[in-house]
Structures are given as C-alpha cells and as structure tokens.
C-alpha cells in the first residue's frame, strides 16, 4: 500500500522539477567520473602500449648480474610471457678493420611487443625479410660502409666467428636518444657463450622482458619484488620524455576537471534536494497528522531518492561507457594496433561517487524532511531554505573525500578544497558588506532598479550561498577554459610546425662542407652544429666516482654517471637552457664546465667544484661555473656537461645537426645516406606523430570536460533559481495586486540577475586568476602570465549566463495572468 | 489511569509553553476538559487565544508542557510521536482551515491517503462513496489546483471520514471560504458527523458555527473564560 502511494507521489513529483535536477546532477557526477576515469585509463593504456612497442615488452627488468631462472619460472606460472636480452659493447673485427659496436643478443621470443624487421641485404629498402638464426649477426646499416662488409661475410666477435645475415631494418627498442652511440649489432643469445666475451667483471646488461595482461603483470611484479637484489631494477616509462610529461599533465588535468565537475554536481543535487524537502515539509506534516509514522514517511520519500539514484546510476554508467567507447574508437584512429581493455574500475568508481553524492548531499535533506513534526501542519510553511550546519559539514567532508578518492592525490585534493572553502568564506563576507551598502546606493535609482536592488539585497542576505555557487560555477568554467587553452598551447609550442624531425649524428669535420652544400642544394635548413666528444666523468674534487650504476650502498665510492657521456663545447648558451646558478662562459673562459641541474643534484655537484674527465685516454679537469636547467621536452640535442671551448677544441670531434624534412622529400634521405655513409640519420617523426596524437586526444577530452563542467554549472544555476520560484511567485502576486506593470517587473528581474551575474563573474575572475597562478606554478610547472582576456570574459560570462538562465526560468512567471497568479499563491 | 467508557477525551491541567528569544511564553494555562463520545464541542476564541494549540494537544499532534490528555484509553501525553501517529491513524480525522490537500495527488487519491496509510483494503471503494457523498463524484481525477476552495474543503472532509474515525477535529473549517460556501461546508460536516456518530471537536472564531455544537468552550489568552456546561461536566 505504501509502495503504491510512494510510486504515485514519485510520478507526480517528477513534474515539479527538483527530482529531475537531482537526477541530472547525479547523472552528471556518475557519467563524468565513469567517462573521465575510463578515458584517462584508455589514453594511458594507449601510451603504455605504444611505449611497450618502444621497449619491446610491457615491462623490463634490468640487471647487471646473469639471468635468474627462478624469475622466468615465476613469470610463466603467472601466465606472463618472457624474453631474454643481453647488451654489451665489444670490438667487432671484419678482415683487418675493427669497430666498437653495441651488441644486443636476443632469444627467439624477442620482441614481445613491437616488430623486429631484419632484411637479407645491406640496405634497409632492399632484400627479403628474414628471422634471426643462430650463427648470424645483423648490423646497423652504417656498419656495412664502415667495415666494408657484404651479406654472407664472416666477422669475428670475441672468440666466435659469425656470418653477416643482413641489415637491421627496424628494432623496436632501439635507443630513441638523438645521441645514438656506437653502431648496433644484433645476434642470437645462444651464440654469446662461444664469443667468451662474458667474463667475471664484464659490463653486461641483462634485460628480462615481460608481457601479458595488466593484472597478471601487476601480480607478478609484486610477487618478485621481495627477491629483487640491488642489481636488478625496473625500467619504467621515461618521465623526462615529451610523451611522459605530456601524459602526466593530461592525466592531472583530467582528474582535476573531474573533481570540479563533481563539486558542481554535488552542489546542484544538494540545492535541489533541500528545495524538494522544503517544498514537501507541509505535505509530510499533513501525512503525519493523518497518522503516518516517521518510518513510513522515510520509506515514502526514501524510495523517491532511491529511484532517482537508480535512474542516475544506470543512465550515468551507460553514458559514461559510451563516452569511453567513443574515446577508444578515437584512439584506434591514431593507433591502429591499440586494443582497448574493458575495465570495471571506472564503473564502480562512478557508481560509488554517485551514491556518495546522493547519500551525503541529497539524503540529509530527505532525512530531515521525514523528521517534520505533525504539529507543523498548523504552522505557516516557511519559504526560505533552512541552513543545516550538519549538512554542510558532512557535505564539505564528502567533497574532500571524493576529491581524494578520485585523484588519489592528497595534496591536490586538500589544496583545491581549501581554495574553495576560502572562496566561499570571502564571498560570505562580500555578501554581508554588499547588504550594508546597496541600500543607500539604491536610494537615488529608478524604481525598477530599486526593486532589483532590494530583491538582491534581501536574497543575498537570506541566501548568500546562491552567490557563492554562481561564482563557483563560473570560476570553474573559466579556470578550466583558460587552463585548457594554455596547456594545449604549451604542448604545441614544444613541437612547432617545421621543428627538426631528422637528426644527423657522427658528422666528421670533413663531412660538414659536403653536408652544407647538400643542404643548400636541396633548400634544407640546417641547425647549429653541436660538436661531440665522448668521455667519462672520473672524479669530482679529486674524489673518484663509480663507473657503474649501482644501488649498492656499501660502496664507499662517490656516485657517478655510470656511462660514457657526450661532451660538447659551446660559446653560447643553447636555447631551451636556463642558468640557475653561476655565469655562462666568458670569451676567455679557461677550463670551465656547465652542468645540467638534475645531474648536479644527483651527483651532489656544486658551483666551484672541480670535475675530472677522461677522453680518449687523456685526462682533463674543469671548474663548475654554472648549473643549467634543460627543457627535456624540446626535441633538441641536450647535454649534461657543456665545457668551455678552450678544453675540447683540440680533440677530434664529431658533430650533431638537425633539420626538418617534409614527408614528400623523404627520397632525399637515401641520397644523403649514400653521400655520407658513416653519418647516422635518426628520424624522430614517430615521436612527433605520437606526441601530436596525444595532443589531439587530450584536446578532445578537454573539450568534453568543459562541456560537462558547463552543464553542471548551468544545473547549479537552474537549481538555485528553482529554489526561489515560490517566493518569487508570492512577491510577483503582491506586486501585481499593487498594480506593477509587466515592463517594470521584467526590468527589475533582469537587473537583479545582471547585477548578480556581474558580481559572480567578477569574483570568479579574481579567483580564477589566483587559481591559475597556483596551478601553473605548483602543479603544471608552467610560467605564469596574467590572463587579460579573463578580465572581460569573466564578468561578461557571468552576466550573460546568469541572466539568460534566470530569465529562461522566470519569464513564464511574468506571463501568468495576474488573477491566475494570485489564485495560485493563495491556494499554496 | 482508566477513564470512564462514555468519556472520549479528557484533559487535566494542560499547560503549553514555548521557548522564545527572551525566555519562554505560556500559550495555554492549566486547561481541563471532558468530552463525551458522540458529542460535538466548539472551542471558541479570537486569533491568538490558544484554541488551535489546544486542538493540537487534544488530537495528539503535540504534547503538553504539563498536564495529562487522554483520547479514549490512550494517554497521549505519555506516547511518542510515532505512537501518537498510530492513535491518529486509527481513531482521528482532521479538517483544516487551509484544506491542506497534497497538491500532487488527485481528489480521490487525497481522500484515500489516510486509509492507505492505515492499510485499509477497500480504500478506493470507500473513497468513491465519500466523493459521491460530498458531491464531487465528477471531480475524482482533478488535482487540488483545479478545484475551487469549497470543493477542496469538501475533499478534505471526505478525507477526514474515510478511516471512520471516532473523533473528528476541525480547525476553522469554513474560515477561508465565502459565507454561502462556508455554510454548505458546515452542513456537510455536521451531516457526515451525525451519520457516522463521530465525536466532533471544532475550533472556530465564528459564533454561529459554534452555536451548532452541543457545547462551547470560550478561550482568551490561553484560558477558558466561559463554558457552556450543557450535557457534560467540566472538571478543573
């Protein structure tokens, strides 16, 4: 019987609006959490899959010690695929010519991700595709010219004689670094023993490659964590790369936007639920007077909330999942081999958010509603929204808990929460001040303006919370819009149109003229020549440093770089470099070095320290005269150590240069390789394409989020105006009875919203500027600049948005004939 | 305490105080009364005399600050809100000055609401009969906003009688209506009351209406100033 009444009331209540606002607010919260969480995971997984192709596996464990078979056994138990890889530098002998090469020895399972392409030829574009066999070696193209080799020739590697099988056309985990290094050679891992190169103390990197589904991999990684020694460590996605950093920013941004959407949706739900409860207070009093118990009323109105939650969860989850599917489809457009994995996480996270929002924001007013006393049936119903301290404390705690749950970042969630709380407090004070001063100011105005001001003043005082949410909504939309434009601009700046996409490494002094005339002939714009000398850092302040990377804390030796460095000398500070301490080389600088900031920090190098280098058997030392910050996101050659020209000028150096080659000019590359066979050409087109595809994806995601925030903001405004409907109806009835004309009432109404919108817009602007400053400085590491456009867009947006929404909802009230309006009010 | 079977409502020493900004305000002072079964009693007084507060205590909508009130064998002053709700559901009907129909329910649904809350099976059939009795059979599916004031009050009266209450409390039932409509409503109320043998407690400032009841209590500033003792006894 009770269910029948509940159902009947529910359908009729739906027509009155508040339940739809609650439903739509929860739908937005659920939908945005599901979609944002899903899309973030999707983009991340796409990048992981992409980066997995660049490391030939989903995850890689590096070790300086021989393979531990127990690890492979454990992986296989957990259905994780494995492959083995060893890497070392060695001399390769071809007849009487020798060359230092980097050897990579792999087994038949290699690669687990990406594609290895070997050609039975000495040129990439020629020959048929073959697979790696025992006894064969495959060489990087330039080695054929350097060593004067052909396919089928014999080479010697340590004690083993191996046959040249062909050229490496594509190696998934080839170093992407523009510094290149020694030419690369690929061989079968089973042939390594015969070379007898692996001896105790040899510098060999053993790489365990793993691939499988994310759950199994995670299980496996945590299972072997306790048994890993200090020689073994996971090789993770490089955070210093443009991709890693873009991804990190995108993820933070999406999470942040998600939080904002939730706050707004929660506000809308709370306002609508409070309004719903307040409007139903008298009905509950009547029902109770007619004999219903509190329990019965709770069931009656609780069932309404339950149905609304159910509806919002189902529709929110469906809409969210559709958005995820659309995003996956979009990612596939960029990454053909992307396989989307279905995940329950966004779904339960969304449902949990919806339930928390509903219970902590909407349930409380409903609960209070059921506590209405039967005696209230004899009282005049109150038209103002009651302020419930418990609701706001619980609500605030819930907002923060949701922020934390969703972002997983304590500092970010607390920061954002505090900003919102301070904002609310400042607006409260502002509203109070306004109340005090508006009256005298309004005294000399026209009567419509007077009425608008009087309305505003009275409502501001009774409900300054309205101004806070208006401002909050506009503030969120503004910050998001400006941050979005800024992030996209920053990303695009990193890879401007026409940025160099091909790097030339190992250019000798003699080849520079040939290269220059080739570039001139084909109208290629060459960049700066960076001289490179390879050397090791041997000592800091006469203290020898470790020559190998180790985590072994027992070693008393000072930490070193652990590998050969590319050293350069330059008379001018390169672009994308910024001095943090010290000074750049003077014209006559003697024995100075400029060190990159992160290396300086890791190696505890300070200004004035003396660094010793070993270059081709010669020792030299330099004083640290500056520390530099380097923008690793820029696709430019970057150096850890830049020495003053006097030190290196006499060493035989090779050079690095870069140029932009349009896709239709790619035939020039073959000509260039033939002209300069010993120069390595590295194309970064794939990296640029990858970053561009991420920017494209993220731009779509950001626009989508802006839409969500916009909708949530509009919903808050609608809920707020709806909350005052009855009160306004009463006032209008009185004014009409007293003879007020339509134009007068319309002007008063519009002016009220224009003023409210302008105030909210101005406040939102100030807050948005402060927020952008904090975010740029603390979260996204972007340089700060004032947003001049914000200062007119903000107030304008406030006026247009608030007035349009207010007018849209209230215009029908103005058009109701006086007699009907008065009757409606009298009948309650 | 056991009260005599013929006594329907008994109040002794009822006092009601409410908290105000600077202390407390006593609305009712030491009120005692007895109402017999089937009797019609009017409580008369000007606005603010405390008559509606007294009605709320007698009907169990509220509890006194001091004193006792019994409705049949139920000590309302000792019962919880929900226990009093149970008593109201089973024994009490109400008619209010401002009708207090639920705007989202139709006329028929408003009438059947108390019966449905009490779990009465033939609520709809009863409701239709009552609609007929109050002359609104054609308006069963109308919402309150579509009905005139008089029609709304007739619906409210039908609602009051659907659970066949032992006692009906009416708070200024015709005060919001024009004289002619008010008179019709009063006739309807007394007619149904007579048919069902219900005890009627009526609060009004209208002396003509009060005169239609068997007895009257006159109130001023929270006290009885005059009691028409006909057919009953006045204690205290």
Entry keywords:
heterodimer, A: 828 residues, alpha+beta, six-stranded mixed β-barrel, 17% strand, elongated, B: 236 residues, alpha/beta, six-stranded mixed beta sheet, four-stranded antiparallel beta sheet, 10 strands, globular, disordered C terminus
Characterization of this structure:
Chain A is an alpha+beta fold and 828 residues long. Helix content of chain A is 55%, strand content 17%. In chain A, the strands form 2 sheets. A 6-stranded mixed β-barrel of chain A has the order 2-3-9-6-8-7. A 6-stranded mixed β-barrel of chain A has the order 13-15-20-17-19-18. Chain A starts with a helix and ends with a helix. With 236 residues, chain B is an alpha/beta fold. Helix content of chain B is 33%, strand content 29%. In chain B, the strands form 2 sheets. A 6-stranded mixed beta sheet of chain B has the order 6-7-8-3-9-10. Chain B has a 4-stranded antiparallel beta sheet with strand order 2-1-4-5, covered by helices on one side. In chain B, α3 packs across α4, α3 packs parallel to α5 and α5 packs parallel to α6. Chain B is globular and about 50 Å long. Mean pLDDT of chain B is 86; it is low at 231-236. Classes of the chains: A alpha+beta (828), B alpha/beta (236). At the A-B interface, α1, α7 and α8 of A face α1, α2, α3 and α5 of B.
Write the layout of secondary structure elements.
The complex is a heterodimer of chains A (828) and B (236).
Chain A: H1 2-14, H2 18-55, E1 59-63, H3 69-77, E2 81-94, E3 97-106, E4 117-119, E5 129-130, E6 136-139, H4 141-146, E7 154-157, E8 160-170, E9 184-188, H5 192-195, E10 205-211, H6 214-224, E11 232-235, H7 242-289, H8 294-334, H9 345-370, H10 389-407, H11 410-442, H12 447-462, H13 465-494, E12 502-508, H14 511-521, E13 530-540, E14 543-544, E15 565-569, E16 577-582, E17 592-596, H15 597-602, E18 610-615, E19 618-630, E20 641-643, H16 645-648, E21 654-659, H17 667-675, E22 680-683, H18 685-723, H19 725-737, H20 742-779, H21 788-815, H22 818-827
Parallel strand pairs in A: 3-9, 6-8, 15-20, 17-19
Antiparallel strand pairs in A: 1-10, 1-11, 2-3, 2-7, 2-10, 4-5, 4-8, 6-9, 7-8, 12-21, 12-22, 13-14, 13-15, 13-18, 13-21, 16-19, 17-20, 18-19
Helix pairs in contact in A: 1-8, 2-7, 2-8, 2-9, 2-18, 7-9, 7-10, 7-13, 7-18, 8-9, 9-10, 10-11, 11-12, 11-13, 11-20, 12-20, 13-18, 13-20, 13-21, 18-21, 19-22, 20-21
Chain B: E1 7-20, E2 23-36, E3 40-45, H1 51-58, E4 66-71, E5 74-75, H2 81-91, E6 92-95, H3 107-117, H4 123-133, H5 149-161, E7 167-171, H6 179-196, E8 199-204, H7 207-211, E9 215-220, E10 223-227
Parallel strand pairs in B: 3-8, 3-9, 6-7, 7-8
Antiparallel strand pairs in B: 1-2, 1-4, 4-5, 9-10
Helix pairs in contact in B: 3-4, 3-5, 4-5, 5-6
């Amino acid at each position: 019987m009770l269910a029948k009444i509940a159902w009947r009331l529910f359908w009729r209540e739906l027509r009155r609006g508040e339940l739809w606002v609650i439903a739509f607010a929860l739908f937005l919260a659920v939908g945005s959490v599901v979609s944002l969480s899903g899309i973030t995971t999707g983009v991340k997984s796409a990048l992981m899959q992409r980066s997995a192709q660049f490391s030939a596996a989903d995850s890689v464990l590096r070790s300086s010690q021989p393979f531990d078979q127990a690890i492979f056994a454990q992986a296989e138990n957990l259905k994780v695929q494995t492959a083995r890889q060893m890497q070392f530098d060695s001399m390769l002998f071809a007849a009487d010519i020798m060359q230092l090469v980097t050897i990579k020895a792999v087994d038949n399972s290699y690669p687990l991700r990406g594609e290895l392409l070997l050609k039975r030829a000495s040129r990439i574009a020629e020959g048929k595709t073959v697979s790696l066999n025992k006894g064969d070696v495959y060489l990087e193209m330039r080695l054929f010219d350097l060593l004067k080799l052909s396919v089928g020739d014999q080479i010697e590697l340590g004690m083993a004689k191996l046959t040249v099988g062909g050229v490496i056309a594509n190696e998934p985990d080839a170093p992407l670094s523009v510094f290149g290094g020694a030419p690369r050679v690929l061989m079968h891992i089973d042939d390594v023993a015969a070379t007898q190169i692996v001896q105790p103390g040899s510098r060999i990197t053993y790489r365990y490659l793993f691939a499988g589904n994310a759950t199994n991999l995670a299980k496996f990684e945590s299972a072997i964590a306790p048994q890993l020694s200090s020689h073994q460590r996971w090789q993770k996605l490089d955070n210093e790369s443009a991709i890693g950093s873009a991804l990190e920013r995108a993820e933070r941004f999406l999470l942040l936007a998600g939080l904002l959407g939730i706050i707004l949706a929660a506000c809308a739900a709370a306002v609508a639920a409070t309004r719903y409860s307040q409007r139903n207070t008298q009905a509950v009093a009547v029902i109770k007077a007619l004999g219903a118990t509190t329990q019965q009323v709770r069931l009656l109105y609780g069932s309404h909330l339950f149905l609304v939650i159910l509806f919002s969860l189902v529709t929110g989850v469906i809409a969210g999942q559709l958005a995820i599917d659309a995003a996956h489809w979009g990612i596939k457009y960029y990454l053909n081999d992307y396989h989307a994995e279905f995940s329950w996480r966004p779904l339960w996270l969304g449902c949990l958010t919806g339930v928390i929002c509903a219970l902590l924001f909407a349930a409380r007013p409903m609960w209070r509603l059921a506590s209405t006393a039967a005696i209230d049936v004899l009282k005049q119903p109150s038209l103002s929204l009651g302020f419930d301290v418990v609701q706001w404390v619980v609500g605030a705690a819930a907002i923060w808990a949701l922020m934390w749950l969703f972002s997983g970042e304590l500092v970010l969630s607390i920061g954002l929460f505090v900003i919102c709380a301070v904002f609310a407090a400042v607006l409260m004070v502002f509203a109070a001040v306004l109340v005090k001063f508006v009256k005298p100011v309004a005294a000399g105005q026209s009567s419509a303006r007077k009425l608008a001001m009087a309305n505003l003043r009275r409502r501001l005082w009774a409900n300054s919370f309205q101004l806070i949410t208006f401002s909050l909504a506009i503030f969120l939309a503004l910050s998001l819009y400006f941050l979005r434009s800024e992030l996209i601009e920053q990303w695009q700046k990193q890879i401007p149109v026409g940025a160099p996409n091909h790097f030339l490494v190992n250019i000798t002094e003699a080849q520079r003229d040939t290269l220059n005339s080739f570039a001139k002939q084909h109208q290629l714009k060459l960049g700066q020549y960076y001289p490179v000398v390879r050397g090791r850092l041997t000592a800091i302040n006469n203290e020898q440093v470790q020559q190998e990377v180790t985590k072994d804390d027992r070693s008393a030796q000072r930490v070193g770089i652990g590998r050969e460095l590319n050293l350069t000398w330059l008379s001018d500070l390169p672009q994308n470099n910024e001095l943090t301490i010290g000074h750049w080389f003077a014209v006559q600088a003697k024995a100075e070095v400029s060190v990159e900031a992160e290396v300086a920090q890791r190696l505890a190098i300070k200004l004035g320290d003396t660094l010793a280098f070993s270059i081709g058997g010669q020792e030299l030392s330099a004083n640290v005269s500056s520390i530099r910050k380097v923008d690793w996101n820029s696709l430019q050659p970057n150096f850890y150590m830049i020495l003053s020209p006097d030190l290196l000028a006499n060493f035989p150096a090779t050079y690095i240069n870069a140029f932009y080659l349009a896709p239709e000019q790619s035939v020039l590359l073959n000509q260039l390789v033939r002209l300069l066979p010993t120069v390595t050409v590295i194309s970064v087109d794939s990296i640029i394409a990858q970053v561009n595809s991420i920017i494209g994806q993220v731009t779509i995601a950001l626009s989508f989020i802006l839409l969500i925030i916009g909708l949530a903001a509009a919903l808050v405004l609608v809920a707020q105006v709806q909350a005052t409907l009855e009160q306004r109806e009463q006032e209008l009835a009185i004014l009409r009875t007293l003879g007020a004309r339509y134009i007068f009432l319309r002007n008063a109404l519009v002016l009220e919203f224009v003023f409210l919108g302008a105030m909210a817009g101005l406040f939102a602007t100030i807050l948005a500027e402060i927020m952008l400053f904090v975010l740029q400085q603390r979260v996204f590491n972007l340089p700060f600049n004032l947003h001049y456009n914000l200062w007119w867009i903000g107030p304008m947006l406030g006026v247009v948005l608030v007035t349009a929404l207010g007018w849209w909802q209230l215009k029908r009230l103005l058009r109701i004939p006086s007699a009907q309006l008065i009757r409606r009010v009298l009948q309650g | 305490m056991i009260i005599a079977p013929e006594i329907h409502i008994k109040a002794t020493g009822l006092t009601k105080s409410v908290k105000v900004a600077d202390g407390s305000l006593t609305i009712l002072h030491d009120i005692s009364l007895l109402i017999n079964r089937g009797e019609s009693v009017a409580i008369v007084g000007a606005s603010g005399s405390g008559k509606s507060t007294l009605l709320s205590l007698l009907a169990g909508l509220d509890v006194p600050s001091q004193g006792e009130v019994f409705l049949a064998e139920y000590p309302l002053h000792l019962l919880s809100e929900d226990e009093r709700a149970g008593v109201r559901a089973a024994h009490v009907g109400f008619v209010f000055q401002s009708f207090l129909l639920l705007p989202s329910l139709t006329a028929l649904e408003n009438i059947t609401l108390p019966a449905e809350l009490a779990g009465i099976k033939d609520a709809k059939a009863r409701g239709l009969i009552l609609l007929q009795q109050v002359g609104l059979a054609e308006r069963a599916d109308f919402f309150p906003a579509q009905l005139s004031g008089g029609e709304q009050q007739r619906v409210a009266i039908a609602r009051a009688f659907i659970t066949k209450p032992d006692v009906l409390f009416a708070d200024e039932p015709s005060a919001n209506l024009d004289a002619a409509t008010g008179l019709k409503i009063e006739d309807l109320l007394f007619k149904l009351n007579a048919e069902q043998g219900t005890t009627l407690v009526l609060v009004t400032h209208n002396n003509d209406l009060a005169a239609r009841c068997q007895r009257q209590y006159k109130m001023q500033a929270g006290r009885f100033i005059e009691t028409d003792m006909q057919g009953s006894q006045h204690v205290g």
